[in-house]
Amino acid sequence: MPATTDEGAAEAAGLPAAVPGPSGTALLRGAGDLLRASHPVPAAGVTLLAALLAAASGLGFRTGATAVAAVAAGQLSVGWSNDRLDLRRDRAAGRRDKPLAAGDVRPAAVTAAASAALLACVPLSLACGTRAGLVHLGCVAAAWAYNLWLKRTPASWLPYALAFGLLPAFLTLAATPGRWPPPWLTAAAALLGTAAHFANTLPDIDADLVAGVRGLPQRLGRRGSVAVAAGLAFGSGAVLALGPPGPVTPAGRLLLLLTAALSLGAVAAPPALARSRMPFLAVLALAGADAVLLVLASRDLAAP
After folding, report:
1. Residue 37 contacts residue 83 (beta carbons within 8 Å)
2. How far apart are CA 169 and CA 248, in angstroms?
3. CA–CA separation, 196 vs 263, rounded Å?
4. 293, CA 20 to 30 Å: which among 8, 116, 141, 299?
């Protein structure tokens, strides 16, 4: 194709022709691929849970928004680092569903995004108070330890228990006056987080075993992981319903019955359904019910 007038003038002057930059559509597509590499659904779920807990715990708008931003930054750093560290394994497994493994986004971009999110998480966390900030940074450190090492060991559940268990403490310590949550709330959140770990691995257990990832869910297998996830989720709901002082609320009784029914349904699924997405969806519904209970229980912790 013949050069334009401007390009011809540049060539005549001995200057290099201008290189067109990426279009707006290409930039949006690249940003979308980068976001997909952050595990956006789990990150959004944890961030939404933090926002609901912050509102239930009585945090003001400014502190609550800062705390939620800290959680979002931490979750993004964890998601991006997970895909970056798993790049070789995902490519070997042919994971075309992951933008990084599929070549839709450059490894350097994911590394930079994970680093930027982690750097942003530090001041945002500490802005909520020193004690609260250190607790949240401990949660993020536990999640990074999972990505770096623990996901391939029988202790793969431990970072989830620690990170989820300490999330209510991050928010209650950020309140004025700051306070530690009661032990039953911490235990319930830890049980919920551990159940989420088992549920999160269910769709990928077979691929993980082929790739050499042998965390506790992979070692137990699909049926064992479904049973453990359902039991943990039911245990979390029971602690949330029975742990607070006073009689069990009607909402607590209703959600406890719901979690019991979902637990039995997930565990008693016939072999044909056990290999489908039904147990995974049932455990997700269990986790959602527990999250509702967690938020309702946190209303009583609002600072006077």
Report:
1. yes
2. 23
3. 14
4. 141
Amino acid letter, residue 197: H
Q: What distance in Å separates the CA atoms of residue 12 and residue 4, rounded to the nearest whole number?
A: 12
Query: Is there a contact between 17 and 3 (Cβ–Cβ < 8 Å)?
Result: yes
Residue type, 212: G
